[in-house]
Design a protein that fits this description.
The protein is built from 18 helices and no strands. It is mainly alpha-helical and 442 residues long. The protein is globular and about 60 Å long.
Length: 442
């Protein structure tokens, strides 16, 4: 329930941005309205790694409950917001809460199942919930905004968040935290600055271009803080992120697959949504429904991917899912101004199914190749890579359709790039991921 809300809020708010801008038009500007969406993403991505580490050291259930409680409070604050600046601040705090929820939710699932096969199936269901949230966001957002106004997209979180807190307290077992471990504060600060800077820089590049001084400064800050983070982690005796984890080929390769997967999928999702609304002039609700062949596949495919991972290990489902997704991107090259919608259904469905089928295997590979007491930080690494990938995909593919000579030419170039990202994932899975991930000490 917590994971569903967090992933839903990344997409549901997009359909609410125009009415938010209209209501606060006299007190804000376009940049401020954009940061209602982007502020959430930047903080979410920047804090994922630290949140996973904090969950491992202080207790995953406590961190999850804290994040879920804060998410409920900030959702109420967003719905109540009397001004644009107040709404942006609440969205930043929502991103903090989301960062606490995601890696700890996966760590709690990891701790709840001793059998690898059962754990892989549960991870598939976890991924299916995220896919269902992605499918629900545009449609549910359109319905709520049309019926009740933009504030409803935030208020809808309250009953489910409160119920999630009650169910967690009653049913979720608290795994033992890593006793006596320090929080490694220098690395925490450097990691947050590095991830936040790269997410901010990439998002701003989509608005202002890659040569904008703010973008270049953010990317330079990312390089400096990233280098400092690696230096600190190499020298400390109790690192937040043991760099030895990356010596495991399965851990490194599956993390890179998560990065490439999100570059292709979320970049293309942004462009296709823009294609239906701005290029084909579909209404918001109809554009959301047009994406259902892609997004609705996620809930089914994630479950099936988890089951196949339980039987075969992570490599076969990753190869199958990535291959199917790459074929779907190639199929989108058919898209044009007058292309019948039915001709796009199979490519969209292949992309959605392939992406969702791959993710449970990638998650299982990362978590199983890390020691049990590092499940939270391992999840944080993967999800941070995925969030950065989403930001890269939206900025890069979005720039192609807005800054090239023609929308369709930019969209087709973006489809080729997305297919290439999935092809790179195939090579990583084929040569870097073992059939059965083996945990190492770290």
């Amino acid at each position: 329930m917590g994971f569903f809300m967090v992933m839903l809020d990344a997409t549901i708010v997009t359909v609410a941005l125009p009415p938010i801008g209209k209501e606060f038009g006299s007190g804000g500007n376009l940049t401020g309205v954009q940061w209602v969406a982007d502020g959430y993403t930047v903080v979410f991505a920047g804090l994922l790694l630290s949140a996973g580490s904090i969950g491992d050291k202080l207790g995953s259930r406590s961190a999850f409950q804290t994040g879920l409680g804060l998410f409920v409070i900030t959702s109420a604050g967003c719905g109540f917001a009397p001004s644009l600046w107040f709404l942006v601040v609440m969205r930043l705090l929502q991103g903090l809460a989301a960062a606490l929820v995601v890696p700890t939710s996966l760590a709690l699932i990891h701790a709840s199942y001793e059998d690898k096969k059962d754990r892989a199936k549960a991870i598939g269901l976890w991924g299916g919930i995220g896919g269902l949230a992605a499918a629900s966001g545009p449609v549910l957002g359109g319905l709520l905004v049309a019926a009740f106004g933009w504030r409803a997209v935030f208020y809808v979180n309250l009953p489910f968040g409160i119920l999630g807190l009650i169910l967690t307290a009653r049913y979720v077992t608290a795994p033992r935290p890593e006793r006596g471990a320090a929080l490694d504060l220098p690395a925490q600060v450097l990691g947050i600055l590095a991830l936040g800077a790269v997410a901010f820089g990439i998002i701003e590049a989509g608005h202002s271009g890659w040569t904008d001084p703010v973008v270049l400064g953010s990317l330079a800050l990312f390089v400096l803080c990233g280098a400092g983070f690696l230096l600190v982690e190499k020298r400390t005796t109790d690192p937040m992120l043991p760099l030895g984890l990356f010596r495991n080929a399965t851990f490194s390769s599956a993390t890179a697959v998560g990065l490439f997967l999100n570059i292709g999928f979320y970049g293309q999702l942004f462009v296709v949504s823009f294609y239906f609304q701005q290029y084909r002039h579909y209404a918001v609700l109809w554009a959301g429904l047009a994406l259902l062949p892609q997004t609705a596949m996620a809930a089914v495919a994630s479950t099936l991917g988890g089951r196949m991972t339980a039987r075969t290990g992570p490599r076969p489902p990753m190869l199958l899912g990535l291959g199917l997704g790459a074929v779907g991107f190639v199929g989108l090259l058919l898209a044009g101004r007058t292309t019948p919608y039915l001709e796009l259904v199979l490519p969209l469905a292949a992309i959605g199914f392939g992406t969702a089928f791959t993710m449970p295997a990638a998650v299982a590979a990362v978590v199983e190749s890390a020691p049990a007491h590092r499940a939270g930080v391992a999840s944080g690494v993967l999800n941070a890579a995925r969030q950065v990938g989403s930001a890269v995909g939206v900025a890069l593919l979005g720039a192609l359709v807005t800054q090239t000579a023609g929308f369709i030419d930019g969209m087709r170039i973006g489809s080729v790039i997305s297919a290439a990202c999935f092809a790179a994932g195939i090579l990583l899975a084929l040569f870097g991921v073992e059939r059965e991930g083996r945990a190492q000490e770290a």
